[in-house]
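Structure tokens please, single chain.
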Amino acid sequence: MSAPVVASVPTNSRAAGLGIATISAAWGTVGVIVKEVDLPAVAIVQARTAIAVPTLALALLLGRRWLPGRAFHRRSLLRAALGGVLVAAHWVCFFAAFKRAPVGTVLLITFLAPVFLAVAAPALLGEQVARRTIVGLALGLAGSVLVVGAPGGSGTTTAGLVLAFLAAVSYAGLVLLMKPVAEAHGGVRVALVEMSVAAIVLVPFTLTSGAAAPDAADWRLLVVLGVVQTGIFLAVYYHCLARVPATEAGVLSYLEPAAGVLFGWWLLGEGLTVGTVAGGILIVVAGVVVLFGPDRPPVASPEVAGVPG
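Here you go.
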């Protein structure tokens, strides 16, 4: 395949990083929503993706004149579709883990993913990992270990831990797969294809899951999950991911488990100890180091007509 045509578009990578940090913290509420919805994990994910699709389609219809990125070609469309399968698997594992372990534990195991990104991104994406990112990764990982290893994790099962680990692996794979596609085609387009495929893939599993019809309270939470947490936030996340290194985005995503622990304690009464607080503080410090560290280079975000590979 011929090399992509690149037009360098100056962007504020720090602003994009702040966007990822903000969305990651907001995603900390997802575990609380999942705990409160009385449906199997696969049914929640299918509803989340199906509700997100019209939200994203409307955004693309209204904003296609000014949204960044180009229309898909076959190869990048296939990559986005594969991303839909991968995100479906990720969320099913992620949400199923929430049913079998505390919110904070699930989030902090899942967010071992930045470690996998730090190992794989230089080889697969050609990224250079900055010193501040390495420091931030170490702080974030230390914070995760503190919270996961802290006492008070009642309700944890082996299945929950395994599912959380599978969610971590699939999360890292998703970022590595979708970052080049987001650079080429923009967050809204990528999220729309991804969610459409995920919604379709999950239909047969949902129909055989034995899920009852959601009640009114469940529907309210599912609409928030689908429209806001998925449709809007996922599109903005991919828009920002196109403008920051994958490893940096991974470190900033540690704010999701930190926020998840806080929301789990505040809204669900889950355990909050000195270890969880110390771990959360380390994660926040990690984000500050990544965003405001001294060796942040100027970044130009490419708008590309094709995706390499």
